[in-house]
Amino acid sequence: MLIKVFFLFLIMVSAGRFIDDIMSSLRRIIPLLNKPDVESSYIISRELKKSWISEIFKKKNDAPIIAVDGSFGHVEMTDGTSLIFAQAEAIVGRGGEVTKEVTKADVYLYPSSLVEDFESRFSEDLEHRVALEALKNAPEGGYILLDGSIIARQLNAAISFERHGVFASRYAVNLMKLIEEARRRKHKIVAVSKGSRTRVLSTALIERAARSIPVRSREEEAIISDLLSGRYMGAYKLLKSGRVNPAIEDLVISAIRCTTDIRLIRSSGVSPPGRTEALRVGPYIRSAGEMMKRISRVEEAERMVMESGITHLEVSRGLITEEEASEIASEGARAVLSFPPCSLTYVWFRGDDDPMKVDIPLEGSWSSVGIEFMEDPDFLPDALGVLYDCYADPRNHNVYLEKADRDVKLTREDLEIYESALERALGEPLRHSRSYRRYWGGL
Fold first, then answer.
1. What phi and psi, each to the nearest 5 degrees, are found at residue 350?
2. Which pLDDT tens digit goes with each residue over 271-292?
3. Which residues, at least 6 apart from 346, have a Cβ–Cβ distance to it below 8 Å?
4. 173 CB-contact burial (10 Å; exposed 0-12 / middle 13-18 / buried 19+)
5. pLDDT digits (tens, 9 = 90+) for 198-228
6. CB under 8 Å to 336, separation ≥6 — which residues?
7. Which residues contact 227 (CB under 8 A, 6 or more apart)?
8. In this structure, are residues 103 and 88 in contact, taking their beta carbons and an 8 Å threshold?
9. Dist. CA 111–CA 170, nearest whole Å
10. What CA–CA distance (Å, rounded) separates 247 from 43?
């Protein structure tokens, strides 16, 4: 007990040494938090106002719900690898009552230098697997609620293909299995994000505004082309080449200064309850599109997977054979290329809460889709109605997901229990790296 008190004292003393600098920096940042960039993105805000839908779908939901969430943590070892622990839970419910809970946990060995980027992917993969398990005995015609974004998971599967090797392939395969099985059992996957950092909506509004401005010169044509391609700084540099339409100049500056979609919605003068128009979204990030071109060549996909560090680690330690790694690489490539596009909508229930990003898989292939406005899918009213029915308040944006989050949270105490179990199995203490001991306050 005295040791814990001593270390707490040291932490407080350490914070006190830096508090003046921290407060000085915070004073510069606070105006940015309190005052969104209304004036810097007024053209985009105007576009948003024109398309804002001041209604939400209220529905008493009686369909079965599967709400999925996961958590993770890691332990760094002296040999440059980390043990990553993840656990996931699927809450199965109906009419506000929980009828079943399905859980999974897993451990993975991974290079410590890449662990920060990897462990959330590992947790998501476990979520996909536990959702598949929960689907086995679930009645048809329900909803699978995911905390996060399907679009982001699809993009991560593509972008991580080379870096995360055989794991990225498994991740893509399991995600596509979940999408296909949900479709077969007539379940809609509804991914809900709060605190999203994306600019998908902003990009679509910028493109729509750019297409509406008449072009009068080659310079203006080049600027509009850059805006439509997402090269905003390139468009800004072209402004200096000559006099252009003030509307084009304003749009370029607005595009550069526009922040995230959520800040745009909150600063645009629209009011809740309401929602944005639906968007159809594919692999809109340039790096994802480029990676998909490489993945489409089977030999190149296999080469990327086989040359990644994680594949070398698994093969060298006998966790997988080279033949198995090559086979999963091919399966992963097919999964990435067959991902469907998703509908994306922001829904805003209350002014004291933030808008939520909602994305739902559609039919077809995502490879030919960027970002485009679309008519509301037939399922959208019911899906948003289910989210409204599950909404309680800003701290409980979805009662099922909040329960899954509380149940599955992996704590430091959990990690210590898992470590102790592993040490008993090994018959010797784990050899932590010095940075890990320092992070956890160990001796």
1. -140, 145
2. 999 999 999 999 988 888 889 8
3. 201, 261, 262, 265, 275, 276, 355, 356, 357, 358
4. buried
5. 899 999 999 999 999 998 888 899 999 999 9
6. 154, 157, 158, 161, 172, 292, 295
7. 206, 207, 210, 235, 251, 252, 255
8. yes
9. 18
10. 9
AA identity, residue 307: E
Distances (CA, A) of 111 to 87, 119, 165, 314: 20, 11, 12, 11
Amino acid letter, 76: E
CA triple 311-327-111, angle to 5 deg = 10
- Cα 207 to chain center, whole Å? 23
Token reading at 67 = 């709400």
CA–CA separation, 5 and 9 (whole Å): 6
Q: What is the pLDDT of residue 437?
A: 39
- Alpha-carbon distance of 334 to 302, in angstroms, equals 11
In this structure, are residues 325 and 164 in contact, taking their beta carbons and an 8 Å threshold? no
- The model's pTM is 0.82
Which residues are registered as beta bridge partners of 361?
342
- 3-state SS of the chain is CHHHHHHHHHHHHHHHHHHHHHHHHHHHHHHHHHCCCCHHHHHHHHHHHHHCECCCCCCCCCCCEEEEEEEEEEEEECCCEEEEEEEEEEEEEECCEEEEEEEEEEEEEEEHHHHHHHHHHHHHHHHHHHHHHHHCCCCCCCEEEEECCHHHHHHHHHHCCCCCHHHHHHHHHHHHHHHHHHHHCCCEEEEEECCCCCCHHHHHHHHHHHHHCCCCCHHHHHHHHHHHCCCHHHHHHHHHHCCCCHHHHHHHHHHHHCCCHHHHHHHCCCCCCEECCCEEECCCCHHHHHHHHHHCCHHHHHHHHHCCHHHHHHHHCCCCCHHHHHHHHHHHHHHHHCCCCEEEEEEECCCCCCCEEEEEECCCCHHHCCEEECCCCCCHHHHHHHHHHCCCECCECCHHHHHHHHHHCCCHHHHHHHHHHHHHHHCCCCCECHHHHHHCCCC
Of the candidates 86, 84, 128, which has an alpha carbon nearest to the alpha carbon of residue 313? 84
**173 HSE (CA, 13 A, CB side):** 13
Report the alpha-carbon distance of residue 434 to residue 436 in Å, rounded: 5
